[in-house]
Amino acid sequence: MEQYIIKGGNPLVGEVEIGGAKNAALAILAAAIMTDETVLIDNLPDVNDINVLLDAIRGIGASVHRIDRHSVRINGRSITNFNIEYECIKKIRASYYLLGAMLGKYRKAEVALPGGCNIGSRPIDQHLKGFRALGADVDIEHGKIIAEADRLTGKHIYFDVVSVGATINVMMAASMADGLTIMENVAKEPHVVDVANFLNSMGANIRGAGTDVIKIRGVKKLHRTEYSVIPDQIEAGTFMFAAAATKGDVTVMNVIPKHLEATIAKLVEIGCEVEEFDDAVRVVSKGRLKSTHVKTLPYPGFPTDLQPQIGVTLALGSGTSIITESIFENRFKYLDELARMGSRASVEGHSATIEGVSRLTGARISAPDLRAGAALCIAGLAADGITIVDDIVYIQRGYERFEEKLKSLGAVMERISSEKEIRKFRLKVS
Ligand code: UD1
Predict the structure, then answer these.
(1) Is the overall model pTM greater than 0.85, yes or no?
(2) Domain boundary among 185, 208, 228
(3) How far apart are CA 11 and CA 221, in angstroms?
(4) Mean pLDDT of all residues in the chain?
(5) Same domain for 205 and 282?
(6) What domain range includes position 151?
(7) pLDDT per residue over 281-318, tens digit each?
């Protein structure tokens, strides 16, 4: 099992290139099978979740040609299998996007119930509500979701909760339904807009993505396209908090600053200097940061996927911070690990109270999930002494070349897999 070993205490300094948005790319890859023509997708992140989904798409019979690490050509004409049982697909959340894509194109789909990070109960009732509203029969049997329809017909659908996954999934199926679908109370995340733009580039007729109401006029066929995925606001935010926590000076390159507004606002509030450029943002952190209150919310609110990263940063701030997690109920597990490093925090219900400390000390800790794992690496980079992070497989699911990018900013860290390598690292840095 691989681990990260980190010698903390160095401010991160320099420029780092941000890759394509994992969560947009996953949905776009699934949607790419909705045409029989060839689709070229660029600016993909080269991370495990993407590779698992590409294997699944290959597994149902589509042709998948990886041109290089960041681009792929997909052709869905040869798909003959509508049943996705591939074992690994259960581990990724976005497997459910193949339901919307196949239901839209073929009127049938069978996909194993999705897994993903254990950050809460993560129901999919709103996805199923949307598919049923369009006229599909949907059942869950033997651990699979089975959706089938003679015809899909546009409908007026009101979502009871704002869900990124349900918005994108139902949008895909409705793109090829008969007539007009109006989806209300939808998610407005940048990747919802990106998937809508992608589908429109294939000939879909989707209006209003990025607002509360999306209107979709179904089309009979979709066609070829070439598309570049938007930059990953969560990867960018992770490096921005890494700069803040380590008292560094980092410029995240190839980003859309507009997508980072909530993150920038919080960084400024706690005392960082933030400079925005056309496609880059610079974060400078000097001295002790201030405390604040944070509540995670759907976009444009503060993203739940950056909650652990700001939590770790606030653990080193002065005074008392309160974080309220309103999206997923099980997202404070990282605080137990952080306590091993000397942080002071308590959790009650959906809120965590963090009393800032002046220093954290290195310890052996585990990544509980993808974003929490990245946040704990930030803690290790900011702490005195050596930190070993176990279970980094979670981090590799969603961050491309994570340690290489951090090292390019001056982080002293290695990816290791044996006690011998730990001893070697300790000797090297002592
Ligand atoms: C996606 C992201 C994840 C991010 C989350 C919120 C992917 C692969 N994952 O997850 O990284 O943390 O958005 O930005 O893109 N809910 C229901 N019923 C449903 C669907 C959702 O009650 O049918 C609830 C969830 O429990 C949660 C909230 O709605 O409380 C938001 O979930 P959702 O936006 O659907 O998250 P995901 O699409 O799973």
Answers:
(1) yes
(2) 228
(3) 53
(4) 95
(5) no
(6) 22-228
(7) 999 999 899 999 999 999 999 999 999 999 999 999 99
State the distance from the centre of ligand 1 to the C-alpha of 124, rounded, in angstroms.
8
Sheet holding 213-217, edge to edge: 156-158, 180-184, 213-217, 205-207
Q: Which of 88, 117, 272, 377 is catalytic?
A: 117
Distance CA 370, CA 325 (A): 16
- Phi and psi torsions of 417, nearest 5°: -145, 20
Give CA separation, 146 vs 84, 96, 102, 172, 211, in Å.
10, 11, 11, 17, 30
pLDDT-derived band of residue 114, with 50, 70 and 90 as boundaries?
Answer: confident
Per-residue confidence band for 120, with pLDDT thresholds at 50, 70 and 90: low
Distance (Å, whole) CA 364 – CA 422: 12
Residues paired with residue 320 on neighbouring β-strands, in sequence order? 355
Over residues 220-246, the mean pLDDT reads: 98
Ligand 1, atom 32, lies closest to the CA of 163
Q: Which of 182, 202, 228 is the last residue of a domain?
A: 228
